[in-house]
Fold:
Amino acid sequence: MSEKKEFKDFVTFEMTGSPAQVSKWPYKDDFVADMIKWGFTHTTLTHKTDLLVAERDDIGTGKFLKAKKYGTPIYTYRQIWEQKEKLYQRILRDKKLNILKKKILSGEND
Structure:
């Protein structure tokens, strides 16, 4: 029997615009493949999505505006390339800390 991973155990992303500005990824499929290799999970953009990857930090697409509304962190493809796995670990750690803080503040016990 396989256990379903809890939301807190992975880092989700959505993307907008073209990754072509970073020659490493001529196509979005190439970018997604590398993100999965580094531990990220591709999802649609919701209020629970951990980050949006955009062509530039002011792209102005519908997804970009939605991410701003949700408070979702936005990174450029170049920033993702420069930060790679360190970004995944930082987001996962922060995510788990926020869940723990909420439990403590609400008085929940495991």
